[in-house]
Amino acid sequence: MSAAAARGVLDEQQVRAMFDRIAGVYDRMNRVMTAGLDARWRARAADLAALGAGGKALDVACGTGDLSLELAARVGERGEVVGCDFSERMLELARHKSPAVRFEQANALDLPYADAEFDAATVGFGARNFADLERGLSEMGRVVRPGGRVVVLEITTPQRPPLSWFYRVWFDRIVPVLGRLTGQADAYSYLPSSVRRFPGPEELAALMAGVGLARIRWLLTGGGIIAIHVGERR
């Protein structure tokens, strides 16, 4: 295990390479680690994007595309969803799931889209991998129209026992073991460490406000393990 992975700090090229490596086990590990609840959390995040039929949405750091597909179900055939990620291997798997979404390679810190192009922008379990979180949030806000929403779905650290005790055992001990069983020890040691260094709900809300988003609110679900933040572009 590398020291950087253990600290939850990898540079952009290392993160890209890591996700290319784990793409084949990514969906399966998500289901195991969340007892299948990750699908419900993505559906809730898509609801909070408040998209109507015919809407246009961007899913940033889309991975294998599950949140993108939730968005596509809400905008319907007349709408448009773009899923972008910098891992081409993740995108290859996403494209096999559905032709309803346009999946393309892009860097979250320099999105190749016009100002105010989308009705909503989402990121599911990817914001903690941004090399510059403030810049990534700013880019998401830039490409959303005034009044449109930015939604951030992310793992957070519960503060109250007994869930905080379970969380430490699960993420600090069991998840790395599962990673070793899949041959991806570094990636699944990086995961709990990256969650620990990610801002808590109040701090993330302040960052979203700092990049110009308004009416920011969040909900905690999964017993406090999951936070879903919503902000609106001014």
- Helix and strand pattern: HHHEHEHEEHEHHHEE
Count of discrete structural domains:
1
Numbering strands along the chain, what is their spatial order in the largest sheet? 3-2-1-4-5-7-6
Shape: globular
Helix content: 40-55%
- What would the CATH topology be? Rossmann fold
Summarize the structure.
The protein has 9 helices and 7 strands; from the N terminus they run αααβαβαββαβαααββ.
Describe the structure.
The protein has helices spanning 3-7, 12-34, 38-48, 66-75, 88-97, 133-142, 163-181, 185-197, 201-210, and strands at 56-60, 80-85, 102-105, 118-124, 144-155, 213-221, 226-233. It contains nine helices and seven strands. Helix 2 (12-34) crosses helix 5 and helix 3 (38-48) packs across helix 4. It has one domain: Rossmann fold. The longest helix is centred in the N-terminal third of the chain and has 23 residues, at 12-34. By secondary structure, the chain is α/β, with parallel strands linked by helices. The N and C termini lie far apart (44 Å).
Main attributes?
234 residues; alpha/beta; Rossmann fold; 7-stranded mixed beta sheet
Give the topology.
Blueprint lengths: L2 H5 L4 H23 L3 H11 L7 E5 L5 H10 L4 E6 L2 H10 L4 E4 L12 E7 L8 H10 L1 E12 L7 H19 L3 H13 L3 H10 L2 E9 L4 E8 L1
Helix pairs in contact: 2-5, 3-4, 7-8
